[in-house]
């Protein structure tokens, strides 16, 4: 149901540790979309966990919440672009929530052909993701 969070949170890799890093990746279903919330630093290996989390959540419409990320390695940008391509190739979407302007420009440079929308506010990102999902359902019917 639109606007209602699922009662279950999927702790995918919840508590996973990289030495010296308290990073976690968690998923929550919301309105037919999935929110993948990341805490800690993001590098290419963390993006692999994000990819696995979004695949396990069984939704092609992903909101990637990076508001609690302490650092984003340059190697993460091409991996995030790849995640965007994968979502779009399956009829889905990827919205990224962050205020880190450096990440936005790195992702744009890494994949000008598949630039995901960025949002400062998670509410706006969820609304965009749910709208994309509804449009995909309408077009497939």
Q: Keywords, please?
A:
globular; 6 strands; six-stranded mixed sheet; alpha/beta; 141 residues
- Regions with little confidence, pLDDT below 50 for 5+ residues: 1-21
Number of helical segments with 4 or more residues: 4
CA-based gyration radius: 14 Å
N to C succession of SSEs: EEEHEHEHEH
Class per helix and strand makeup:
alpha/beta
Structure description:
With 141 residues, the chain is of the alpha/beta class. The protein is built from 4 helices and 6 strands, in the order E-E-E-H-E-H-E-H-E-H. The protein has helices at 44-56, 76-89, 101-110, 122-140; strands spanning 5-10, 24-30, 33-42, 61-72, 93-97, 118-119. The chain has a 6-stranded mixed sheet with strand order 1-2-3-4-5-6, sandwiched between helices. Helix 3 links the parallel strand 5 and strand 6 (118-119). Helix 1 runs parallel beside helix 2 and helix 2 crosses helix 3 (101-110).
Protein topology:
Layout: E1 5-10, E2 24-30, E3 33-42, H1 44-56, E4 61-72, H2 76-89, E5 93-97, H3 101-110, E6 118-119, H4 122-140
Parallel strand pairs: 3-4, 4-5, 5-6
Antiparallel strand pairs: 1-2, 2-3
Q: Summary?
A:
With 141 residues, the chain is an alpha/beta fold. It has 4 helices and 6 strands.
């Amino acid at each position: 149901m639109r606007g209602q969070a699922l009662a279950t949170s999927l702790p995918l890799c919840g508590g996973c540790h990289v030495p010296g890093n308290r990073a976690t990746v968690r998923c929550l279903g919301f309105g037919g979309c999935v929110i993948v919330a990341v805490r800690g630093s993001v590098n290419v290996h963390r993006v692999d966990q994000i990819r696995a989390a979004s695949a396990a959540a069984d939704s092609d419409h992903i909101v990637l919440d990076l508001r609690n990320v302490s650092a984003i390695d340059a190697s993460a940008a091409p991996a995030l672009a790849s995640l965007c391509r994968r979502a779009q190739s399956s009829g889905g979407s990827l919205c990224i929530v962050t205020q880190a302007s450096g990440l936005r420009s790195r992702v744009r440079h890494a994949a000008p052909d598949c630039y995901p929308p960025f949002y400062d506010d998670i509410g706006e990102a969820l609304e965009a993701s749910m709208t994309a999902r509804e449009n995909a359902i309408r077009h497939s019917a």
